[in-house]
Amino acid sequence: MDIERIRTYCLEKKATTECFPFDETTLVFKVMDRMFCLIDLEHPDIACMKCEPERAIELRDQYHGIEGAYHFNKKYWNQVALTQDVPDRLILQLIDHSYEEVLKKFTRKQKDLYNELP
Length: 118
Description:
Elements: H1 3-11, E1 16-19, E2 26-31, E3 34-40, E4 46-50, H2 53-62, E5 66-68, E6 77-81, H3 88-104, H4 108-116
Antiparallel strand pairs: 1-2, 2-3, 3-4, 4-6, 5-6
């Protein structure tokens, strides 16, 4: 899987934006200002995504290309090697899962705003 496919896939999601909040090489995808996917353009073969903690452990045990995300809370964030043993279909599912994990943490007000969007 390549970075352009991930970028396109992320931006197709409702209320998603991309930005560089940390520096000029760290591309972040957010849903209503909450981060769900990150790719360092200097290392475009790795993406970081939020994950439910028990599932994160299972995935790390199952795939060499999934481990706790560097510089993130490893309980909730995985880094996924895009060119190793993780199937493309699973990578897209993990992006979906990350997006849904962020939506689950929305406040009532954020949920209402999200639901009002086209």
